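User: Please fill in residues for this 239-position structure.
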Protein backbone atom coordinates (compact mmCIF):
# COMPACT_ATOMS: atom_id res chain seq x y z
CA UNK A 1 0.00 0.00 0.00
CA UNK A 2 1.55 3.18 -1.12
CA UNK A 3 -0.68 5.62 0.73
CA UNK A 4 -2.85 5.00 3.71
CA UNK A 5 -5.26 7.79 4.48
CA UNK A 6 -5.78 9.31 7.93
CA UNK A 7 -9.05 7.38 8.26
CA UNK A 8 -7.33 4.01 7.85
CA UNK A 9 -4.30 5.11 9.86
CA UNK A 10 -6.43 5.92 12.87
CA UNK A 11 -8.44 2.70 12.58
CA UNK A 12 -5.23 0.65 12.25
CA UNK A 13 -3.76 2.42 15.27
CA UNK A 14 -6.79 1.60 17.45
CA UNK A 15 -7.00 -1.95 16.14
CA UNK A 16 -3.32 -2.46 16.90
CA UNK A 17 -3.79 -1.18 20.45
CA UNK A 18 -6.55 -3.75 20.95
CA UNK A 19 -4.42 -6.39 19.23
CA UNK A 20 -1.53 -5.75 21.64
CA UNK A 21 -3.87 -6.05 24.61
CA UNK A 22 -5.35 -9.34 23.36
CA UNK A 23 -1.91 -10.86 22.85
CA UNK A 24 -0.93 -9.81 26.35
CA UNK A 25 -4.09 -11.42 27.70
CA UNK A 26 -3.50 -14.72 25.94
CA UNK A 27 -0.41 -15.03 28.15
CA UNK A 28 -2.15 -13.75 31.30
CA UNK A 29 -5.09 -16.12 30.82
CA UNK A 30 -2.76 -19.09 30.39
CA UNK A 31 -1.03 -18.21 33.65
CA UNK A 32 -4.35 -17.77 35.45
CA UNK A 33 -5.69 -21.08 34.13
CA UNK A 34 -2.60 -22.81 35.56
CA UNK A 35 -3.25 -21.14 38.94
CA UNK A 36 -6.97 -21.93 39.08
CA UNK A 37 -8.24 -24.95 40.97
CA UNK A 38 -11.96 -24.19 40.67
CA UNK A 39 -13.56 -26.10 37.79
CA UNK A 40 -16.24 -23.63 36.70
CA UNK A 41 -13.84 -20.70 36.80
CA UNK A 42 -11.11 -22.64 35.01
CA UNK A 43 -13.57 -23.74 32.30
CA UNK A 44 -14.71 -20.16 31.68
CA UNK A 45 -11.09 -18.94 31.55
CA UNK A 46 -10.33 -21.59 28.95
CA UNK A 47 -13.35 -20.52 26.90
CA UNK A 48 -12.25 -16.91 27.11
CA UNK A 49 -8.71 -17.84 26.10
CA UNK A 50 -10.20 -19.30 22.91
CA UNK A 51 -12.27 -16.14 22.40
CA UNK A 52 -9.22 -13.97 23.04
CA UNK A 53 -7.12 -15.87 20.49
CA UNK A 54 -9.93 -15.60 17.94
CA UNK A 55 -10.20 -11.87 18.66
CA UNK A 56 -6.45 -11.45 18.09
CA UNK A 57 -6.78 -13.23 14.74
CA UNK A 58 -9.82 -11.19 13.78
CA UNK A 59 -8.00 -7.97 14.59
CA UNK A 60 -4.96 -9.11 12.63
CA UNK A 61 -7.13 -9.79 9.57
CA UNK A 62 -8.94 -6.48 9.87
CA UNK A 63 -5.66 -4.54 10.19
CA UNK A 64 -4.33 -6.23 7.04
CA UNK A 65 -7.58 -5.52 5.18
CA UNK A 66 -7.14 -1.85 5.96
CA UNK A 67 -3.61 -1.96 4.56
CA UNK A 68 -1.79 -1.98 7.88
CA UNK A 69 0.55 -4.29 9.68
CA UNK A 70 -0.47 -6.15 12.82
CA UNK A 71 2.13 -5.56 15.50
CA UNK A 72 3.09 -8.79 17.17
CA UNK A 73 4.38 -8.90 20.70
CA UNK A 74 7.07 -11.39 21.67
CA UNK A 75 5.54 -13.44 24.43
CA UNK A 76 6.56 -16.66 26.16
CA UNK A 77 4.93 -19.89 24.98
CA UNK A 78 2.19 -21.69 26.96
CA UNK A 79 4.60 -24.17 28.58
CA UNK A 80 6.86 -21.38 29.84
CA UNK A 81 3.82 -19.50 31.14
CA UNK A 82 2.40 -22.53 32.96
CA UNK A 83 5.83 -23.29 34.38
CA UNK A 84 6.30 -19.72 35.61
CA UNK A 85 2.80 -19.69 37.10
CA UNK A 86 3.41 -23.00 38.88
CA UNK A 87 6.69 -21.73 40.31
CA UNK A 88 5.07 -18.47 41.42
CA UNK A 89 2.32 -20.43 43.16
CA UNK A 90 4.83 -22.69 44.94
CA UNK A 91 6.87 -19.66 46.00
CA UNK A 92 3.78 -17.88 47.31
CA UNK A 93 2.70 -20.96 49.25
CA UNK A 94 6.16 -21.24 50.80
CA UNK A 95 6.08 -17.56 51.72
CA UNK A 96 2.68 -17.93 53.39
CA UNK A 97 3.85 -21.02 55.24
CA UNK A 98 7.02 -19.28 56.38
CA UNK A 99 5.27 -16.11 57.46
CA UNK A 100 2.15 -17.46 59.13
CA UNK A 101 3.00 -21.02 59.91
CA UNK A 102 2.04 -24.28 58.22
CA UNK A 103 -1.47 -24.21 59.68
CA UNK A 104 -2.41 -21.23 57.51
CA UNK A 105 -1.11 -22.98 54.41
CA UNK A 106 -3.23 -26.02 55.30
CA UNK A 107 -6.23 -23.86 56.09
CA UNK A 108 -6.14 -22.56 52.53
CA UNK A 109 -4.86 -19.05 53.11
CA UNK A 110 -3.43 -17.89 49.85
CA UNK A 111 -4.82 -20.03 47.06
CA UNK A 112 -8.36 -18.66 46.93
CA UNK A 113 -6.99 -15.21 47.63
CA UNK A 114 -4.68 -15.50 44.63
CA UNK A 115 -7.54 -16.62 42.41
CA UNK A 116 -9.52 -13.65 43.65
CA UNK A 117 -6.65 -11.30 42.84
CA UNK A 118 -6.42 -12.83 39.37
CA UNK A 119 -10.16 -12.36 38.88
CA UNK A 120 -9.87 -8.70 39.86
CA UNK A 121 -6.99 -8.22 37.41
CA UNK A 122 -8.99 -9.96 34.68
CA UNK A 123 -11.94 -7.70 35.42
CA UNK A 124 -9.74 -4.62 35.02
CA UNK A 125 -8.42 -6.09 31.74
CA UNK A 126 -11.96 -6.67 30.49
CA UNK A 127 -12.79 -3.06 31.27
CA UNK A 128 -9.82 -1.92 29.18
CA UNK A 129 -10.84 -4.21 26.32
CA UNK A 130 -14.41 -2.96 26.45
CA UNK A 131 -13.05 0.60 26.28
CA UNK A 132 -10.84 -0.35 23.32
CA UNK A 133 -13.72 -1.88 21.36
CA UNK A 134 -16.05 0.92 22.30
CA UNK A 135 -13.56 3.41 20.84
CA UNK A 136 -12.99 1.30 17.72
CA UNK A 137 -16.73 0.88 17.13
CA UNK A 138 -17.36 4.58 17.61
CA UNK A 139 -14.47 5.59 15.35
CA UNK A 140 -15.49 3.07 12.68
CA UNK A 141 -19.05 4.39 12.73
CA UNK A 142 -17.78 7.98 12.58
CA UNK A 143 -15.81 7.22 9.40
CA UNK A 144 -18.37 4.84 7.89
CA UNK A 145 -16.43 1.58 8.21
CA UNK A 146 -19.23 -0.89 8.83
CA UNK A 147 -17.07 -4.03 8.89
CA UNK A 148 -14.74 -2.71 11.58
CA UNK A 149 -17.70 -1.44 13.60
CA UNK A 150 -19.37 -4.85 13.40
CA UNK A 151 -16.19 -6.64 14.48
CA UNK A 152 -15.67 -4.27 17.43
CA UNK A 153 -19.29 -4.65 18.53
CA UNK A 154 -19.06 -8.43 18.48
CA UNK A 155 -15.82 -8.44 20.49
CA UNK A 156 -17.09 -5.86 22.97
CA UNK A 157 -20.09 -8.07 23.71
CA UNK A 158 -17.80 -11.04 24.36
CA UNK A 159 -15.78 -8.95 26.79
CA UNK A 160 -18.91 -7.70 28.51
CA UNK A 161 -20.11 -11.29 29.02
CA UNK A 162 -16.72 -12.17 30.52
CA UNK A 163 -16.81 -9.09 32.75
CA UNK A 164 -20.25 -10.12 34.08
CA UNK A 165 -18.96 -13.62 34.77
CA UNK A 166 -15.99 -12.14 36.62
CA UNK A 167 -18.24 -9.94 38.74
CA UNK A 168 -20.02 -13.07 39.99
CA UNK A 169 -16.70 -14.91 40.36
CA UNK A 170 -15.25 -12.11 42.49
CA UNK A 171 -18.24 -12.42 44.81
CA UNK A 172 -17.98 -16.21 44.97
CA UNK A 173 -14.24 -16.12 45.65
CA UNK A 174 -14.53 -13.40 48.27
CA UNK A 175 -17.16 -15.43 50.11
CA UNK A 176 -14.85 -18.45 49.88
CA UNK A 177 -11.97 -16.40 51.33
CA UNK A 178 -14.25 -15.32 54.18
CA UNK A 179 -15.20 -18.95 54.90
CA UNK A 180 -11.61 -20.14 54.71
CA UNK A 181 -9.89 -17.39 56.66
CA UNK A 182 -12.44 -15.94 59.08
CA UNK A 183 -13.84 -18.08 61.90
CA UNK A 184 -17.57 -18.79 61.61
CA UNK A 185 -18.32 -16.90 64.82
CA UNK A 186 -17.05 -13.69 63.21
CA UNK A 187 -19.18 -14.02 60.08
CA UNK A 188 -22.83 -13.18 59.39
CA UNK A 189 -25.00 -16.25 59.58
CA UNK A 190 -22.38 -18.00 61.65
CA UNK A 191 -23.54 -20.69 64.09
CA UNK A 192 -23.05 -18.48 67.17
CA UNK A 193 -26.45 -16.77 67.14
CA UNK A 194 -26.11 -15.77 70.80
CA UNK A 195 -23.38 -13.33 69.89
CA UNK A 196 -25.16 -12.03 66.84
CA UNK A 197 -28.44 -11.41 68.69
CA UNK A 198 -26.87 -9.23 71.36
CA UNK A 199 -26.02 -6.26 69.17
CA UNK A 200 -29.40 -6.56 67.44
CA UNK A 201 -31.25 -6.39 70.74
CA UNK A 202 -29.08 -3.52 71.83
CA UNK A 203 -29.69 -1.56 68.65
CA UNK A 204 -33.47 -1.87 68.72
CA UNK A 205 -34.15 0.25 71.81
CA UNK A 206 -31.73 2.88 70.50
CA UNK A 207 -33.54 3.11 67.20
CA UNK A 208 -36.92 3.11 68.94
CA UNK A 209 -35.96 5.73 71.48
CA UNK A 210 -34.86 8.25 68.87
CA UNK A 211 -38.26 8.81 67.23
CA UNK A 212 -39.92 9.00 70.65
CA UNK A 213 -37.52 11.67 71.78
CA UNK A 214 -37.98 13.51 68.52
CA UNK A 215 -41.78 13.30 68.63
CA UNK A 216 -42.10 14.56 72.18
CA UNK A 217 -41.05 18.15 71.52
CA UNK A 218 -43.37 18.26 68.47
CA UNK A 219 -46.36 17.16 70.54
CA UNK A 220 -45.36 19.52 73.28
CA UNK A 221 -44.96 22.40 70.88
CA UNK A 222 -48.45 22.09 69.47
CA UNK A 223 -50.33 22.57 72.73
CA UNK A 224 -48.09 25.48 73.60
CA UNK A 225 -48.79 27.25 70.34
CA UNK A 226 -52.45 26.34 70.64
CA UNK A 227 -52.54 27.74 74.18
CA UNK A 228 -50.99 30.96 72.95
CA UNK A 229 -53.58 31.19 70.23
CA UNK A 230 -56.46 30.53 72.58
CA UNK A 231 -55.17 32.69 75.36
CA UNK A 232 -54.28 35.63 73.25
CA UNK A 233 -56.71 34.83 70.47
CA UNK A 234 -59.26 37.46 71.27
CA UNK A 235 -56.72 40.14 71.77
CA UNK A 236 -54.39 38.99 68.97
CA UNK A 237 -53.48 41.07 65.99
CA UNK A 238 -55.08 38.46 63.66
CA UNK A 239 -58.50 39.93 63.99
FE1 LIG B 1 -11.30 -10.41 27.26
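Assistant: Residues filled in for all 239 positions:
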Amino acid sequence: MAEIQEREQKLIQYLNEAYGKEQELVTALQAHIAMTSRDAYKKRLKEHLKETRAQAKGLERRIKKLGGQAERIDLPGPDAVADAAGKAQATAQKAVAAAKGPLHALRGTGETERMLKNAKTEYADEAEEIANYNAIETLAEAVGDRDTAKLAREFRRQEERMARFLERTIETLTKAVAREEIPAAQRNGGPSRGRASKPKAASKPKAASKPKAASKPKRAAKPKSAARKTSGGRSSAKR
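For context: The chain has seven helices and no strands.
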